[in-house]
Structures are given as structure tokens and as C-alpha cells.
């Protein structure tokens, strides 16, 4: 079968979520008729977040999946073509750029906005997945508020874990930092701050063995932790677990084509969403490992669409 059909667009948006959908809304309103290709998890990380309290514009608690459905509907209503497909290959070496879908569809584009997001790394315990969103979280800034005057644990040893633990002391009465080694990877200055904080206790050489909880109402009430030196298992009474062992940006498609940092996050120009290739833009968690909020991702999606529009109008005027 060589009769692969090809679809051309001025703006191809890869990935959904707040960044992709916002980029689509702005690109469609600029009459660029964008195509947005989304994979098996439309809406990204927000679809696994139940209560959203920090997205501006909603005084009452909203649901993450609902917010993503609304954004998707808005992008469609203003003229975005939405296609579910898995992109297996992209070629950014010549224009128009091309992207190959598993469906056999080839997409060609004058500009590309990459908003493929990132995924939190999990401990991959069955009990952890069972209580995800019910006391187990990968985002302290999103969920810390729910643990006022409660005891929580953070797993990890890098900057993110230390920052999450420090942040959680604003709400929680006690924070236990569980790390599998006997020293932290975090910056020394952060470590000093952490050790000076009376609310934080560090549990060294330990890993989470099992998350304990109840069914009605569903929630975490403890942890089994294993000491890696002597294999002893002990129990902790806790109300929440925050997993802070890193994120993986979805950028393997762009290896050896776009500049990335050593963790695989796309690098963009200062105050811009443009990558090292003119006409290719990146927005949201695929390039942002600092803020990782729905509202900042949406903001970057807007920036990327405006920059793509500018890029295309310059190309037009050069003709």
C-alpha cells in the first residue's frame, strides 16, 4: 500500500492538554485552520487530576477531565481539525515539515507546535495506582492544600523532592522525606534549608513497599517502607504520599533534531517558544520543568500560536 494520503496544514499541533488546546484556539481564531493530532491520552496529565482549584476563572472546584473537554470543545468550535493518531516519525530537516502517523496518514506543515507534555514517574506499585488522586499525588503545588494539619510523606532525593517537602510544610503538620540512598542529590543550599525545617524528618536508605488505605471514604492512611540495607519493613501512619522522583518529557520523537537538555526537555529561545528550528515551537511541560501548571502551559500554548502566526506571515511577505 503506497497510496498513503497526505494532509497539509499551516499549523500542525502535536499533543493535547492545556498547551495544545490553547494553541489550537488561538491558531484557529487567526484563521490558520490548525490540525491537532492527539494520542491515546487526550487532555494529558489533567485528565488524571480530579479536583482543580487553581485554574483562574472558576470560584468553585472543577474537575480536570471536564476542563480538558471544555478546552477541546472550544478549539473545535473555532475551527480546529482534531485527529486521533499516534505520530511515529517526524522530519524537521526540510520544509514543509512532515509527520507520519501510525494510521498511514502523512501530515505536512508550514509550522509545528509541539505540546506532547510530560509524565510523572511513578513507583509502579499496584497500591500506589489504586490511591492515585485519593491521597497519592505527584504534584504538591496542586494538592498540598488538601493536607492541612495532616502527616504526609514525599519520596525522592532531588531538588523537586526537597522543594515539594518544603512546600508541604506550609500545610502539613509533619513531612517525612523517604530516600533510597543515604544522601540527597538536591543542591546543598536546599539541603541546608530542609535540614533546618523542624517539620521535616528524613528517612534514609528506604523505599516505599506498599501504600496502605481504606475504601470508604477512599484514602491513604499509611505506608509500609522497606530499609534497603537490612530489608526490614516498617509501617508509618500517614494521610498522603507525594511521589517526586522526576518527570519524563515526551520528546523521543525529536531526538537528534531539536535541542534538548540532558533530561530530554526541549530548549526554546529566551522569552519565546521557538526551538532551534525556525517554525517549530514547543509549549507546556514538554519544555517546562519548573512550573508545570495548567495555567502556565495554556499561556505557552497561546504564545506558540501567536509566534507561529507571526512566522507564517513573515514567510508570506517574503514570497
Q: What does this protein look like?
A:
The protein has 319 residues and is α/β, with parallel strands linked by helices. The protein is 25% helix and 29% strand. The strands form five sheets. Strands 1, 2, 5, 6, 7, 8 and 19 form a seven-stranded mixed sheet that branches. Strand 1, helix 1 (18-29) and strand 2 form a beta-alpha-beta unit. The protein is elongated.
Give the uncertain stretches in residue-range form.
Answer: none
Class computed from helices, strands and strand pairing: alpha/beta
SS strand fraction? 25-35%
Overall mean pLDDT stands at: 94
- Report the helical percentage: 10-25%
Number of helices: 7
The tally of strands reads 19
Describe the largest sheet.
Answer: 7 strands, mixed
Quote the distance from N terminus to C terminus.
36 Å
Question: What is the string of SSEs from the N terminus onward?
Answer: EHEEEHEEEEEHEHEHEHEEEEEEEH
Question: Roughly how many Å is the radius of gyration?
Answer: 22 Å
Shape: elongated
Quickly describe the structure.
The chain has helices at residues 18-29, 64-77, 126-130, 140-143, 159-168, 188-196, 294-318, and strands at residues 6-14, 35-38, 51-52, 62-63, 81-84, 87-91, 97-101, 106-114, 118-120, 136-137, 151-155, 174-178, 200-203, 206-215, 218-227, 233-237, 240-243, 247-249, 280-282.
Secondary structure topology:
Layout: E1 6-14, H1 18-29, E2 35-38, E3 51-52, E4 62-63, H2 64-77, E5 81-84, E6 87-91, E7 97-101, E8 106-114, E9 118-120, H3 126-130, E10 136-137, H4 140-143, E11 151-155, H5 159-168, E12 174-178, H6 188-196, E13 200-203, E14 206-215, E15 218-227, E16 233-237, E17 240-243, E18 247-249, E19 280-282, H7 294-318
Parallel strand pairs: 1-2, 1-8, 2-5, 8-19, 10-17, 11-12, 11-17, 12-13
Antiparallel strand pairs: 3-4, 6-7, 7-8, 9-18, 14-15, 15-16
Amino acid at each position: 500500500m503506497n497510496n498513503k494520503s497526505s494532509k497539509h496544514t499551516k499549523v500542525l499541533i502535536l499533543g493535547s492538554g492545556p498547551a495544545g488546546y490553547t494553541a489550537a484556539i488561538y491558531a484557529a481564531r487567526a484563521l490558520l485552520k490548525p490540525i491537532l493530532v492527539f494520542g491515546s491520552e487526550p487532555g494529558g496529565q489533567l485528565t488524571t487530576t480530579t479536583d482543580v482549584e487553581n485554574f483562574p476563572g472558576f470560584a468553585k472546584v472543577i474537575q480536570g477531565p471536564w476542563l480538558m473537554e471544555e478546552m477541546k470543545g472550544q478549539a473545535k468550535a473555532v475551527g480546529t481539525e482534531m485527529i486521533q493518531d499516534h505520530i511515529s516519525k517526524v522530519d524537521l530537516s526540510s520544509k514543509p515539515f512532515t509527520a507520519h502517523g501510525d494510521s498511514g496518514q502523512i501530515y505536512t506543515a508550514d509550522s509545528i507546535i509541539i505540546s506532547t507534555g510530560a509524565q510523572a514517574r511513578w513507583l509502579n506499585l499496584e497500591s500506589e495506582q489504586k490511591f492515585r488522586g485519593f491521597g497519592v499525588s505527584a504534584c504538591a503545588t496542586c494538592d498540598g492544600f488538601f493536607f492541612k494539619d495532616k502527616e504526609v510523606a514525599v519520596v525522592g532525593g532531588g531538588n523537586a523532592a526537597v522543594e515539594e517537602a518544603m512546600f508541604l510544610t506550609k500545610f502539613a503538620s509533619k513531612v517525612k522525606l523517604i530516600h533510597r540512598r543515604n544522601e540527597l542529590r538536591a543542591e546543598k543550599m536546599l539541603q541546608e534549608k530542609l535540614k533546618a525545617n523542624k517539620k521535616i524528618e528524613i528517612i534514609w536508605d528506604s523505599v516505599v513497599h506498599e501504600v496502605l488505605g481504606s475504601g470508604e471514604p477512599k484514602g491513604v492512611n499509611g505506608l509500609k517502607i522497606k530499609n534497603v540495607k537490612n530489608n526490614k519493613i516498617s509501617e508509618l501512619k500517614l494521610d498522603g504520599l507525594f511521589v517526586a522522583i522526576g518527570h519524563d518529557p515526551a520528546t523521543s520523537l525529536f531526538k537528534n533534531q531539536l535541542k534538548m537538555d540532558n533530561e530530554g526537555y526541549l530548549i526554546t529561545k529566551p522569552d519565546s517558544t521557538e526551538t532551534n528550528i525556525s517554525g517549530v515551537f514547543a509549549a507546556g511541560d514538554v519544555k517546562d520543568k519548573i512550573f508545570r501548571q495548567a495555567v502556565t502551559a495554556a499561556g505557552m500554548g497561546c504564545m506558540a500560536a501567536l509566534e507561529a502566526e507571526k512566522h507564517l506571515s513573515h514567510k508570506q511577505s517574503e514570497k
